[in-house]
Amino acid sequence: MQRAGFVALIGEPNAGKSTLLNRMVGAKVSIVTHKVQTTRARIRGVAIEGDAQIVFVDTPGLFAPRRRLDRAMVAAAWGGAADADVVVLLVEAHRGITEGVERILEGLEDIAKGRKIALAINKIDRVKAETLLALAQDLNNRFPFQRSFMISAERGHGVDDLRAWLAGELPQGPWLYPEDQIADLPLRMIAAEMLREKLMLRLHQELPYQLTVECESWQERKDGSARIDLTVYVTRDGHKGIVLGHRGETMKSISKATREELSEFLGRAVHVFVNVKTREKWQDEAERYTQMGLDFKDGNL
Known about the structure:
alpha/beta; 37% helix
């Protein structure tokens, strides 16, 4: 009997949700950087475990929101959890129970009815065994998790056990996606996200959070390749120079890395062209939120 359902990955920013999603799926479908709040939309990756199809929802990190975009991201995270069959809370082993984790534990009470909630303590290689056991006990005293797992999403430790358990907890029913599909993101959004990841890795401080990337056009060519035109929107004219770099060298390097990764992902040649434009108030435009899969109204105070 086949099983299929949705599993939401929630946690604080930088808890390792995107890394775990990519590990579960076996391919890179969500951007991963050392910076927090990199995931903006609810990104779905599809994994097969035996007769079960697991649709993972990598949600934005849960944090104390300040701006409209922050509030919309947090609303999307809780919305993804409330819509899932199973929720997995990721907690960083070396950080323990922070104020953010405490807020999430309180929020879990509101969505616990009708769904299973598991705990995954991530980055276990950073602490000693006795610290892990104490943290797991403390967290389970605060919330009645169905199961607790000790994992390293980056190294893969414990991930197979988590995936096998999740497969057995999903409802019986036909698969939701074709067997060879690993994500339900449009290719245009995947291309934009790959470029945004490269920008976040290269740029510093607040600038990465003040920009967004959109795919303006995707043209299939007769030779089987694709031309992809991407636009980077920044909020100030002064930021354009930072993104481009001296004589455009920064953007040339980033575009090259994006092209190579997209070519590998698609299994064919692509041609990437990038423009950088100023759009001062893109964070207040409903259309930008729709393209990121967020609800503009959720950003209201």
